[in-house]
Amino acid sequence: MPRAGFTAIHTGRIRFGKDGRWYCDGEPIANRAICQLYARAMTVGPDGRARYAGRLHEALKAESPDLAVGFDVADLEQVGQAMGVLRDRLLARRA
Questions:
Q1: pLDDT computed for residue 74 by the predictor
Q2: 1-10: buried (b, 16+ CB within 10 Å) or exposed (e) per residue?
Q3: The pTM is what?
Q4: Residue 82: CA atoms inside 13 Å, Cβ hemisphere, count?
């Protein structure tokens, strides 16, 4: 099990269970912050595609339309890298 707040994504099948918990590859996601993020800012469709919602979606649409459309969970590593580039760009703007 990963430490330091990381959540491992194996095959990338994320779903919201009838019991009110988020699951990845059939296992409950234990990281409470990740679950809260998913609940507030992301939906995962039956096709396994993650889509952003609410304020996060609107902010991404303004800054990075390619990220705003969502992603296949299998592309999580590339999306993480793109989010990192966006973060760095936004932080540089503040400096």
A1: 78
A2: eeeeeeeebe
A3: 0.57
A4: 14
